[in-house]
Amino acid sequence: MKIIAMIPARYSASRFPGKLMQDLNGKPVITRTYEATVNTNLFDDVFVVTDSQIIYDEIERIGGKVMMSKKEHQCGSDRIAEAVEHLDIDIVVNVQGDEPFTEVASLEKLIEVFKSDTNKEIDLASLMVHITDWEEIENPNTVKVVLDKDNVALYFSRSPIPYPRDENVDVKYYKHKGVYAFRKQALMDFYNFPMLTLEAAEKLEQLRYLEYGKKIKMVETHVQGVEIDTPEDLERAKKLWK
Fold first, then answer.
1. Which of 38, 111, 153, 174 lies in disulfide reach of 128, CB 3.0 to 4.6 Å?
2. pLDDT tens per residue across span 176-189
3. By the 8 A CB rule, do 211 and 196 touch?
């Protein structure tokens, strides 16, 4: 089974433009993420895929593997699909470019889903973390996931799901972390499927997979990590790095 990691890296980010080239204790954020992913030793290959000449030149400068994205894409899945279309691989793991604290145990769990899925029933695997703070549960920027008895995703939403109609019901809430592992075929199908209503409404690409009947196995992790979305996040990351 050939497994690669792809790190989609857009230069322009609405909340923090150019964040991937910001300095994180001596190296740009994207460089830290690339090196951390390579150092897990979990992958046959690691690539950055970018729309930016600045990021492309930086990864080339350190001797890394990088691809230029040919066109504008709506989401990370599309960017990765274009990059892997002609590669001979089985599993693609999407590592976010703004997560320099790439965590080995969680990635191992994602890869294990496919190693143990002998009937090839699972199309994607992704991470979730248990949350209890009601402010976070109600926050539309926190994407929640509900599961069936086998931890296969039923739905993702920006709304609090499930809604606790009776206060005494013991409901567990899970936050979706945007780290995915895909079978290559599922990724290529996604690339060729048009967007449907649920994805358009919630602006969540993972809903396209569900709307077309793909199975997403969710894996619980206890590591929140630091995603660098704002200048404040970058300062927290600098302290954590030390």
1. 174
2. 988 899 999 999 99
3. yes
**Using CA atoms, how far apart are residues 149 and 99, in angstroms rounded to an integer?**
30
CB 173 within 8 A of CB 132: yes
157 bridge partner residues: 144
Q: In 3D, which of 164, 127, 165 has the Cα closest to residue 143?
A: 127
**Whose structure tokens read 């790095």?**
241
Closest CA to 61 of 89, 28, 12: 28
Q: Do the Cβ atoms of 147 and 238 come closer than 8 Å? A: no
Can you give the pLDDT at residue 233? 87
Are residues 55 and 20 in contact, defined by beta-carbon separation less than 8 angstroms? yes
pTM: 0.88
Tell me how far the alpha carbon of residue 44 is from its chain's centroid.
19
Tell me: pLDDT of 196 over 90: yes
Share of residues in the chain with pLDDT > 90 (%): 72
For residue 184, the model assigns a pLDDT of 96
**Residue 63: phi, psi to the nearest 5?**
80, 20
Backbone angles phi, psi at 64, to 5 degrees: -85, 175
